[in-house]
Amino acid sequence: MEKYRLSLQERGMAIQYAELPWWKTGPIYQIYPRSFLDTNSDGVGDLEGIRRKLDYLQDLGVRGIWLSPIYPSPLYDFGYDITNYHDIDPVFGSLETFKLLVREAEARGISLIMDMVLNHTSHLHPWFIESRSSRDNPKRDWYIWKDGPRGPFGKGYPNNWMAAFGGHAWTWDKPTEQYYLHLFTEEQPDLNWRNPEVQEAMLAEMQFWLDLGVKGFRLDVINYLVKDAQFRNNPYHFRMTYPRRHDLQHHQFDRNQPETYEIVHRIRSLMDLYAGASEDTMLVGEVYPDEGVHAPDLAATYIGNGKDLLHLAFDFSTIYTSLTAADLHSVLQTWYGVLSPGAWPCHVLSNHDQSRAASRLCAGADNEAKKRVLAALLLTQRGTPFLYYGEEIGMEDGVIARKDLQDPLGKKYYPFHPGRDRSRTPMQWTGDSAAGFTEGKPWLPINRDFRKRNVEAQQRDPSSLLHWYRDLITLRQEEPALLDGSIEFFETGLQENVLAYVRRKAGSEVLVVLNVSGQTRPNPIRRGGTVLLSTHRKPQGTIEHDTRLAPWECTVYR
Ligand code: NOJ
């Protein structure tokens, strides 16, 4: 597939984003630190590795980095089980390296956001160790403890809630003869967010990072924080899914309680204190719906008008959709439709919990062409795009043998659930051994395609996916209509699998046509123009009003 690109200078335009807060101006890049770059040969990525790749990220046009957890952790859930919220796990480096990373990233116009796990700690966190030490310990009420009802056959669970990683959400603590709640593994006890001391303590932890220059947080399962005051049973929800009992419930009482919004508001107030005039800090929430269910309306409630709650929230609908123009249109249109006027959307196709979009949506024939369509889609929508490391080179899911599994979910449900290791395999930097990721033994196997698919090879090839991403990001940052213009879809092309839309700002219009099919199709916009960027046409060339789009063609024009 031929592709041409114009440089910034050739377009003769200045980057327009000066007046927008950083998190509205470009992609935020999620790094799974264990898998990015290992500089001390222990097989696990580290902060120094990220620091060394800042130029790469700057060149790509990234404006923010979300770091998956780097706090000390015994790794029952790979960092989402934290024993100390204000330190760095030695496997990743030290606070000193972290400070350097923040400074050097900021110098390149890249802000850092931390992953904040508020719902639960590790069972080895000193708070929980105290809490479980006796029923009258002052920290007892920092977690959720309950008696089980006694029946003819002994004790029973306090209610029917199930843990996401298997079994009941309640574990019996023999010494103190009560159950504690954990919505994930039993090594991740849930905090009691109804306790004001917990709120104070966690806000202080967040402040620690803000004081170090961090510009925001990705809030892990933010909608789980507060539980039903009466601990009522969740209703049954029948569906065809693999045998995880957790998914056979509608999570009505263990999530999304009204009090959670008050806490989010408190967190937002803290962020605003650090925001300055330019809305410099940002919260993006993981609002986890019932598995596989499209719930953009739920995510939207956590943003509200954009002023009092979260700045951004992930809508998982794009993760649960298929690659057809009609489905993509429906998901995006619904997402925009449920957001209040002051809210700013964001979009995500891949993350560390899901199969990568490159595998999930692009498998089979024309898979590389499909990846270009997804990139063009993500980077020309309204709102902030989130990229997952390796997405820019088209990294696919790894194939992980049972003996190499690390993820608790994958181990527990093998072979019924693929687990999450497949999307966490090491970044493919070069075609050398271990893909240039480590000189040691990588903590997860390197994907088999690394000799062909790697950053170095794609940097050399101007027609590579990496260049396509970079060009799209540059274009997005140069064109006010793409950066923060409105969006309107042309529904006429949907039948033929063409997604077309216009982005508008202050009299300027940018048109986007994406042929989501392997066939030649008419352009539903029926208007010609000057090409800005295309998989198939020269920039500055003309596209005719009656042109036919090549299979999987993506063209952005004016
Ligand atoms: C959501 C995170 O994305 C996932 O990786 C983690 O296992 C759970 N929350 C528990 O923290």
Describe this structure in words.
- This protein has 558 residues and is an alpha/beta fold.
- It has helices at residues 8-11, 47-52, 54-60, 95-107, 126-131, 196-211, 258-273, 296-301, 325-338, 357-360, 367-380, 408-413, 455-460, 465-478, 480-484; strands at 28-31, 64-67, 111-116, 145-146, 150-151, 154-155, 170-173, 178-181, 216-219, 282-286, 312-314, 346-348, 384-388, 486-490, 498-505, 508-515, 521-522, 529-534, 542-543, 548-549, 554-557.
- α6 packs parallel to α7 (258-273).
- The two termini are 22 Å apart.
- Residues 77, 80, 117, 184, 220-221, 286, 352-353 line the site of 1-deoxynojirimycin.
- The site of 1-deoxynojirimycin has 9 residues, from loops.
Keywords:
about 550 residues, 21 strands, eight-stranded parallel beta sheet, six-stranded antiparallel beta sheet, binds 1-deoxynojirimycin, alpha/beta
Q: Which consecutive residue ranges, at least 5 long each, have pLDDT under 50?
A: 1-16
Beta-strand fraction estimate: 15-25%
Q: In whole angstroms, how far apart are the ends?
A: 22 Å
Q: Give the % helix.
A: 10-25%
Mean pLDDT: 95
Strand order of the largest sheet: 11-10-9-3-2-1-13-12
How many helices in DSSP terms?
Answer: 15
- Cα shape: globular
Number of strands: 21
Which secondary-structure class do the elements indicate? alpha/beta
Ligands and ions found: 1-deoxynojirimycin
Report the radius of gyration as a whole number of Å. Answer: 24 Å
Largest sheet: 8 strands, parallel
